[in-house]
Specification:
Length: 196
């Protein structure tokens, strides 16, 4: 017989490469868990379809040097990335879309969660990466660094508002981590407060 071509497989164009793996959680509380082992693993998480949340969709590009695996998912409730080779030297990048996104970075059990209203949250384990970059995309975005997990150390955090009138908010900045705020094009607001 002939295996039919897959249909309906998404591709978030804000993330490099064509997806090689497609996961559909269907119904239920399903999640995608990455168990990373290499010490220099980079991940890029593209929110939703690239233009909208879709049906609980997103794309994760995982790379170690020239080795790349791009995974597109649908109907999932959460994505988690753990790394047994801590402290790690890899980078995590979150990529938004052209909508007015509200993105928050906050401490969670066992790690730190990056969540955007209406999109699937991404939780990374303690010291799974040595840098976190949030590229909010176009639109009037609000990006908030609320907190990092208490076990996080030496994490370089960059919040990029990009195009649009954005609000970059820092509520907590651990002494062992650095934070860089870049508004990009537009009339941006920088709000500092809380536990600084």
């Amino acid at each position: 017989g002939v295996v039919p071509a897959s249909t309906g497989v998404g591709n978030n164009l804000n993330v490099a490469d064509q997806p090689e793996l497609f996961l559909d959680g269907g119904t239920g509380a399903d999640q995608l868990v990455f168990a990373l082992a290499a010490t220099a693993t980079d991940q890029v998480y593209g929110l939703g379809t690239g233009t909208a949340p879709g049906a609980q969709e997103g794309e994760v590009r995982t790379s170690v040097g020239a080795t790349v695996l791009s995974t597109y998912f649908r109907n999932l409730d959460a994505v988690t990335s753990n790394d047994a080779s801590t402290p790690d030297t890899g980078a995590l990048t979150i990529v938004g879309d052209a909508n007015a996104n509200a993105i928050s970075v906050a401490s969670a059990v066992g790690g730190t969660t990056v969540s955007a209203t209406g999109y699937v949250p991404f939780t990374f384990g303690i010291q799974a990466f040595n840098s976190l970059t949030v590229n909010a995309g176009d639109g009037a975005d609000t990006v908030t660094l609320a907190s990092l997990n208490a076990g996080e150390a030496n994490l370089a955090v960059t919040l990029n508002g990009e195009i649009g009138n954005d609000a970059l908010v820092v509520e907590s900045a651990p002494a062992t981590s650095t934070v860089l705020l870049q508004g990009g094009a537009g009339n941006d607001a920088y709000n500092l407060g809380g536990l600084l």
